[in-house]
Design a protein that fits this description.
The structure holds 2 protein chains of 2 kinds. Chain A is mostly helical. Chain A has helices at about 1-10, 15-35, 40-45, 60-80, 85-95, 105-110, 120-145, 150-170, 195-210, 220-235, 240-250, 270-280, 340-355, 355-370, 385-395, 405-415, and strands spanning about 50, 100, 175, 180, 185, 190, 255-260, 280-285, 335-340. In chain B, the strands form 4 sheets. In chain B, strands 1, 2, 5, 6, 7, 8, 9, 14, 15, 18, 19 and 20 form a 12-stranded antiparallel β-sheet that branches. Chain B has a 4-stranded antiparallel β-sheet with strand order 10-11-12-13. The radius of gyration of chain B is 28 Å and the shape is globular. The chains are: A mainly alpha, B mainly beta. Strand 1 of chain A pairs antiparallel with strand 3 (about 45-50) of chain B, so a sheet runs across the interface.
Amino acid sequence: MKHTNSTRHRTSVPQRRTPGRLARLALLGTLLGSAACSPDEILDVPDPDVATPESVQDVAALPALRAGAIGDFALAFAGSNTTEDGLILYSGLFTDELQWAETFPTREQIDRRSVEEVNATMTGLYLNLQRARAAAERATDAYQRLQPGGPVQAEMLNIAGFTYILFGETYCSGVPYSSLALTGQATYGERTTTQQTFELAIARFDSALKVLGTQSTAPATLQRHLAQVGRGRALLNLGRFPEARQAVAGVPTTFDYQLAYSENSARQQNGVFVTNAINRRFSVSSNEGTNGLAFRADNDPRVAAPRGTGGASTGFDGATPLFIASKYGSRSAPISLANGVEARLIEAEAQLRAGDAAAALASLNTARGTVQGLTPLTAAATEAGRVDQLFRERAYHLFLTGHRLGDLRRLVRQYGRNAESVFPTGAFFKGGAYGTDVNFPIPFEERNNASFQGCIDRRA
Amino acid sequence: VYYPAFNPRGVSEDGRSSAQADVLNQCVCAPRTPQRQRPASAGEDLLQRRRVPRRRRGAPAVLGGHGNTALRPEISPRPCGFDLQCSTALGLEVTAYTRKTKDLLVNRVLAPSLGATLNQFVNLAGLQNRGLEIGFNATRSTCALPLRVERRVLGEPQQGVRLGEGIQPIIFSFNSVQRHVAGYPAGGYWQRKIVSFEDRNADGIISRVNCPAYGGVANPQVANGPACEVTLSDSVEFLGGWQPTREVAWTNTFGLFNNTVRLSSLLNYRGGWNQFNSTREFRCGTIGNCREIQDKNAPLADQAKAVARLMGTNAGYIEKGDFVRLSEVALTFAIPDRLVSRIGGVNGASLTLAGRNLALWSDYSGFDPEVNSLLGIAGASGLFGQADFLAQPPTRFFSARLAFSF
């Protein structure tokens, strides 16, 4: 009976009792809940795809840092299927290797040798290359701290060294190198001259060789040769030819350090192949702007570039004939960063500079011997002819590997040639005229670095 | 994070006449309308792995986002103003404001040499908007012809952005034509101006032969050739903002035949703003298939725009976007009750025939100034990007609607 009364009581006047009780319960629950946990924490969902700085501070994270550094470098070097911002592409477009076959006006500026500081396209390449440098430096530091002395640490130093080489060969004098600590603290770099940039590269290769010491495992040997060729390339840029020859001594002609590309994801694809053959943005050039080499006309297997067929017979603009480089035949085609052929070419140049034309010719022919179908060269009659022969061999062996711009600049800087006798010049094939640039400006965005006030020098 | 808001309202009523006068004070003391950005811990998201679970050996760790622990909510007060409803037939609404937004959230550009990401959200110093909004409505009702007129006038925002110390102008948008520059409207158009042009050799063609280089863009140099025919400004200059500074909306409604037939219309005007006609710029400057670079009978002014584009400036294609648009005309017929009553449960019905986007009056040379190809584009363009690039203009369409009430 009591129970019944009680039930009736609650049922008959619910508005008086229930809300108050519920409100008190709700208030109590809220207070307890607030005391027990933070609303922000309740809503904070862990993201398994994101690694915080703290999570990559142990040995287990080193392979991830290495893979990231190599991936960043491969992207900056060749671009991908998500971006054409690859150094091989834009330096090739700027020189006589590639021709603009599409519609983006910012990339027309590159082919035309007339690049504005505010050219938004150029920001991507510069940023990607800086990211690659920073990633390699970050990985180098991590290996030094957690697992010093191995070939992987040397590899990271080598990758960092090559980023400096590419900056030195491609950009005007004055590139700054800043750093961002894992705490978020930014340290902005001062401008560095082109010479200082190559010296920074040499320092990285020297460090790699020091890390490797006398190790003789296959990975260590591979990295030693990579450091040697990189060091030789940097010394060549500094005009220290005897040292360059010494640097590459002992590097076998069969040595080849390749960057791997893959169908696995758009980011991992060979951007040179994709941009040339699939997206039809740039075509292989021939005799571009009067001074360009006859890449297509020479019928040389190193630079073969037959015309595309069907829908690929013209570029993206629907008008420019499209010639597709045979060198990279798929999205997963690897790209040589440095190889033994380049070592022989460095030797040949040093020998030529030392007045030993016969030895230089022998070195060139050793390099040619690696390519089926090439016959040995005969000696050129004049000094200028021998230089032309050397740089033609470099251009063909190192076609679409990011060397050509550095070589053209060296022809101006070290061989005293006029820029308008080596770079594409005169009337541009789509109207107007070529500009006078011999390197890339540093993008405007860098002016957010208070220590940077523009290029120091735009000369070669 | 807490976002305090205080929104007092005062109401004054005058009951001495049949006309009601309600003054609604909309002045608000320091309200806050934050646009919340999730703050990150120091360096959070600094390293981001892609597509692979954490700790899997060999998975690449690459730099992801660049967090900002110091990020604060953006704060901007609401405008002050008043509504005055003098009678059921006459109303006036006035809002005048100077709005200073503090801690403006902007996707700042970072120096690429950091080797990080290119952008980071920061609280820039601020943004100032000044404006005057006037709304007027009147209703005239007689037995034969009920009439309602509503006019809204907006004198909108003259914006001035203030950047923080050490932050350079932020450049973005297609062809880098827009900038955030201290003291100027946010995201204004900046390019070298076309100072002058002249067909000096009277060949009917504007040419850039023998013109000097501007901003590193070289022009053909021909010995003993014609003189330069286009002159650009020495540096980039402010060409105008992209947000309308004047807006008018005019609505009329007529009732006929005892209000059984209603005719309504909406007329819009937007003025004092600019649009980047990137479509035309692309056709002339890149593809080369516009009249002014193929036909020497094309107006010289148009030729000069195309030539100037080749000289490195898009100024010729930053056009006034002012327009008047007949946005809508609708005719509504009330279906007589004697017909409606035959349908069970239906109390009323009407048929509306409407046409939208019926006419456009504008000097803009593209299809329609009121398009934006940069909506939703990430990065620095963010909320400020404005360009017409191969975009479909608003369509004109007609509709018939049969409405029932139950």
